[in-house]
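Annex B.
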Amino acid sequence: MKVTHALHYGNGNTQYLPVSRGRPSARPPLWILILVCLVCVSLIGAYVYPPRRYSACYFFSSRVCSPIMDWLPPIARELTDDEIASQVVIKEILSTPLVQPKNPKIAFMFLTPGSLPFEKLWEVFFLGHEGKFSIYVHASREKPMYVSPLFIGRDIRSAKVVWGKISMVEAEKRLLANALQDPDNQHFVLLSDSCIPLHKFNYVYDYLMGTNISFIDSFWDPGAHGNARYTEHMLPEIEEKDFRKGSQWFSMKRQHALIVMADSLYFTKFKLYCKPGFDGRNCYADEHYMPTLFTKIDPTGIANWSVTCVDWSEGKWHPKSYRAVDVKYELLKNITSIGDNYHITSDEKKVVTLTPCVWNGMRRPCYLFARKFLPEALDSLMQLFSNNTVI
Ligand SMILES: *[C@@H]1O[C@H](CO)[C@@H](O)[C@H](O)[C@H]1NC(C)=O
Ligand SMILES: *[C@@H]1O[C@H](CO)[C@@H](O)[C@H](O)[C@H]1NC(C)=O
Ligand SMILES: *[C@@H]1O[C@H](CO)[C@@H](O)[C@H](O)[C@H]1NC(C)=O
Ligand SMILES: *[C@@H]1O[C@H](CO)[C@@H](O)[C@H](O)[C@H]1NC(C)=O
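Core-2/I-branching beta-1,6-N-acetylglucosaminyltransferase family protein: predicted structure tokens.
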């Protein structure tokens, strides 16, 4: 396989081949010469133009291989059957204009272990806007007890979710599948039990409906919490240069939600090879699958930041969580006025990239939602919302 492959790329190198000017008397049969030539062309071809970076190193010792291979420009790789199939489906979904429904809605999808501590706040947020939203709840541990009629009957069939494992992504896919059943749903927002809205409903609705991009967090992180989680088992479809990281809390347009439904190629790679403890590393599929998928298939169709704010600035294993005493008008004002998103790499350089939040050519506030708020913050938040301090 690899030999024929290499032959295909090796065509330009025939000048290095031994030309057949052997002794005319003891000339070996022509077919042997041709065979020897073919083998030579293949080997030279495989060496100079590897079909992909690592496979050529099976032929040669890595000591010879790596320094030379590093100098070479990458070459186009032949797509696998699964990739060709996946590309036609994805291209078709992206290029087919969607039928605009008369009443476009936003699907709010809650991924929670049980009851929603901020149900009352969300009720205030939703009330009066019936017909412009739909709610879906995936409760993975226990059946939530609701007080608001808006939430009653909105649970979808759910399954156990283990933090950092593929079951997290499977739950996200389950929410998307349920929400896609309603053709009016045009935008799909993933929220956790600790998420709160930062604005009133109309602001959020206009913001999301006014754009045709998805807010999927994605960045290149060469460090310990980024590319160190990558494994070559993901080759050939996912190369290390394609591997991205980002927070799981997405907000995506319908076409992108359909692509998540259609994708089994990339999903399977993450299911098999991106998990805690695999191949001596801890990979968390929910932080890498969607950023990698969308950066690969539609990089300009995503914003590269999430509209859900979370504060990692304390540099701890978990993000900052907000208690009742933290909730003040000033805090909401601070978060809602943020106009740049930033990413920090986890390598020694700790490179910070600050990117202005821009879509349709205009600068915007980055965030519509925030986490993580502790349940005790509910009353203060309710006050802020009822005081009309939130716009
Ligand atoms: C998204 O909207 C912008 C501005 O309205 C437009 O220029 C762009 O072509 C649209 N992109 C897609 C993929 O529809
Ligand atoms: C997101 O990042 C990719 C590169 O990873 C880039 O091609 C794309 O333009 C970015 N999207 C926006 C909206 O800037
Ligand atoms: C809001 O931001 C200002 C300036 O960054 C900071 O000094 C202040 O402590 C922040 N307030 C809250 C409540 O986070
Ligand atoms: C909301 O308004 C009430 C009554 O005017 C006031 O007592 C309270 O301090 C306000 N709360 C906030 C968080 O501004």
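Confidence is low (pLDDT under 50) at residues 1-25, 50-65. Residues 212, 360 surround 2-acetamido-2-deoxy-beta-D-glucopyranose (ligand 1) (CB under 6 Å). Further annotation is deferred to the next reporting cycle.
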